[in-house]
Amino acid sequence: MPDKKDMSHGDHISAKFDEDLAELKANFLKMGGMVESHVAGAVTALVENDGHLGEKVRDGDKQVDQLELLIDEEATHIIARRQPTARDLRLVIAVIKMVADLERIGDEAKKIAKLAITLAEEGKAPRGYVEVQHIANHVRGMLRDALDAFARLDPEPAIGIMKEDKRVDEEYKAAARSLLTFMMEDTRNISKCMSVMWILRALERVGDHACNIAENVIYMVEGEDVRHKPTKWAEQVVGS
């Protein structure tokens, strides 16, 4: 296992190499903050029936896409010009994987924003908003924790995020069952309730992507791929 003390990414002979890595990390965190803000804005647009805010979030997805392209270009530049090895190569590879998850979180926020715009035009759904807010707060916390773990090169919070993802899955299933039962009892608002159902599904996917980022933080620091492995196995990797 690599020594965590050697994960600073700031002690290369080439100062420009250090600058390249620092800029890559900074842009990744910038993108992470952007998509987290978009998720928050999209949910607020839904709850407050604010179509204009929904449009702002929807249109803001273009900035996320542009930042993804910039980060991909930076990562390619580092691999081609610097030929990183060991810890640095893991960092670059992990960022390439994680930025794809951030872009997909941005897509989910855009999806929520579009549905919020539709509901602002048609009128609010009669059920599901409390559940949406609860799950949204949960997955936003997971994303913030994953970004913080990346920034501090600390794999330990990643274990908690992996466990939280299972809780979010259960919360989503319970909320979906409750909403489905309501629709069966009152068919007048099926269309609106289905929009809320899709929003709940989008938030559950945000949690999945946050979990993916957490798993890649473990890979970046520990050099072990914990995807598709039991959480207990990941705990052993981090604790060893």
From TrEMBL:
Coiled coil (residue ranges): none
Entry's localization field: Cytoplasm
Annotated keywords: Cytoplasm, Phosphate transport, Transport
Primary localization: cytoplasm
Top-rank taxon: Bacteria
UniProt key word Cytoplasm: yes
Cross-referenced Gene3D superfamilies: Phosphate transport system protein phou homolog 2, domain 2
Domain PhoU: 29-115, 133-217
Pfam families xrefs: PhoU
Family affiliation: Belongs to the PhoU family.
Assembly mode: Homodimer.
Free-text function comment from the UniProt entry: Plays a role in the regulation of phosphate uptake.
Name the UniProt record assigns to this protein: Phosphate-specific transport system accessory protein PhoU
Source taxonomy: Bacteria, Pseudomonadati, Pseudomonadota, Gammaproteobacteria, Pseudomonadales
Gene name tied to this protein: phoU
